[in-house]
Design goal:
It contains 12 helices and 8 strands. With 317 residues, the protein is of the alpha/beta class. It folds into 2 domains: 167 residues, no CATH class; 125 residues, Chitobiase, domain 2 (2-Layer Sandwich). The protein starts with a helix and ends in a 12-residue tail after the last helix.
Length: 317
């Protein structure tokens, strides 16, 4: 792999100091390549090797930073960080992955289901990475190609992506404007919280065969979803964290909480996680709250992939 990547960036050979950092969380992970050094968090139950490959790819790309900046500077709406991250996500988890799962595709599907746009960094990096994946695959397999030959095609891919983004923002046709989800036999799943708190792959598991709506904690969003789309038997997931003062259930919808916010807040201040299920307005309601925003995404992933957001009568764990 190192030989292939070296050839891809024009023959550069690199030496990368790697600093491993213990992370007491089970699945949360992080890292980065900055200042010529690579830091990598090692959680207890998640393989950190894919993240290592992702960051090493950044190290190779950094040897051609001027070319990347020059290409990005000539394309409307594209900056060097997005171009680099798009290529890195295309490499891993796009191309180099274990097993038959396709985490990049699944993550993008989750972001699209949430209605995430290119304005948000992680959806932007993943969507661009998916668009670049077939181009990068060809470039790495063909010794006649290199980063230099790929960059113009990467610029074109960004332009295509932004055109598709415009279509997503176009007002839908009459059929979808008048679609009544309350009469649809399929139930719906409503997740209220920040889009970056929901793991795309876990989202697919949590939604199952239901319609999915991802919205913020804005009172207007609650009103729109619960008066126009919700029906008895639907499921609501409320994502909350103590350090996100704006991410609170609006007062007029506080009856959705399975337990009072004061009790949730008290448990969070003690460093506890809160996962409770209740029933309100003839719908099943889950609240998932963590002391920090950083921990919320990993906890959602764990519970969703374990099918803990189901409509069964089994109590949450």
């Amino acid at each position: 792999m190192a030989q292939t990547l070296s050839r891809f960036v024009g023959g550069a050979k690199i030496t990368v100091p790697v600093y491993l950092i213990a992370n007491p969380e089970d699945t949360l992970i992080g890292g980065g390549f900055n200042g010529g050094r690579l830091t990598l968090e090692i959680p207890r139950k998640r393989d950190a090797y894919p993240s290592l490959l992702h960051e090493l790819f950044h190290a190779f790309l950094r040897t051609r930073q001027r070319e990347i900046e020059r290409t990005a500077g000539g394309v409307p709406g594209l900056e060097a960080e997005t171009l680099s991250e798009g290529l890195a996500y295309a490499f891993n988890p796009g191309l180099v992955r274990a097993g038959t799962d396709d985490p990049l595709l699944t993550t993008v599907a989750g972001y699209l289901a949430q209605g995430s746009t290119l304005k948000n960094s992680y959806p932007r990096f993943n969507l661009y990475g998916l668009a670049l994946r077939p181009l990068l695959k060809d470039a790495l397999a063909d010794s006649r190609q290199s980063l230099e030959t790929l960059l113009p095609r990467a610029a074109d891919a960004w332009l295509v992506l932004t055109e598709l983004e415009k279509a997503r923002g176009t007002k839908p046709g009459p059929k979808w404007e008048t679609w009544d989800y309350r009469k649809d036999p399929r139930h719906s799943l409503f997740i209220f919280g920040r889009s970056d708190q929901v793991d795309g792959q876990a989202l697919v598991a949590s939604a199952e065969q239901r319609h999915y709506f991802g919205r913020s904690h804005d009172a207007d969003e609650y009103k729109k979803m619960l008066t126009k789309n919700a029906k008895p038997g639907d499921c609501i997931i409320l994502l909350l964290s103590l350090d996100d003062a704006e991410g609170r259930v609006p007062k007029e919808y506080s009856d959705l909480l399975p337990l009072p916010w004061a009790e949730v807040e008290n448990r969070l201040k003690q460093g506890q996680k809160v996962f409770e299920r209740g029933k309100a307005r003839e719908m099943i309601v889950f609240v998932l709250a963590t002391p920090t925003t950083a921990g919320l995404r990993g906890e959602f992933q764990r519970l969703a992939t374990g099918r803990r957001f189901s409509d069964s009568t089994e109590p949450p764990q």
